[in-house]
Structure formats: C-alpha cells, structure tokens
Amino acid sequence: MSDELLLPFIPISLFVCITYAIKALVDARVRRQLISSGVSEELVRSIVEGEERRKRHASLRWGVILVALAAGFLVIEFAGWREVTPGVFAMLLGATGLGNLAYFAMSRRLAN
Length: 112
Description:
mainly alpha; 2 domains; 4 helices; about 0% strand
C-alpha cells in the first residue's frame, strides 16, 4: 500500500487511542471514588466482577459475530459474486444475525 492510502488512518487511530485513554482514566477515577467513599467491600467486588464479565461477554460477542461475517464473506467469494447486490447485503446481514444468535445461545449456556 502506498503512503497516500494510509494517511486517513492516522487521525482515525489517534482519535481511537485518545478516546480509549480517556475512558480508561474515567473508569479508574470512578473505581477510586467508589472505594474511597466507604462502600462495602462486597459491593465493590460485585461491581468489578460484573464489569469483567461484561468485558468477556463483549469479546465473545464480537468474536462470534466476526467469525460469522468471515463465513459470509467466504460464501460470497465462493459463489463468485463480484458486484454489490441486495443478495450480498442479505448474506452479510444474515451472517451478522446468525452470529448474534450464536452468541446469545453461548451466553445462556455460560450463565447456567
């Protein structure tokens, strides 16, 4: 790839990094204030465990959705579809929907 094609990604990646850093600082500050406010240790532990569980589930969800989308792109490639048509959109939307349903089934199984 030439440098000209990569130039638009520099401000985008900078924005993402700054946003993530701000989010990390705000989360750390909220945790610090929560701990220093005298809230019970059990409540703090349950909040932290809930956050960790949500992060793991978010990773699982995106992993399942991206694998389903990759499968959808494979079907498009092997079917020989070279133009953007409603059928291509339907395939990708269907793969995304199947990924969400697979995540839902997995998360219910993990909860039990």
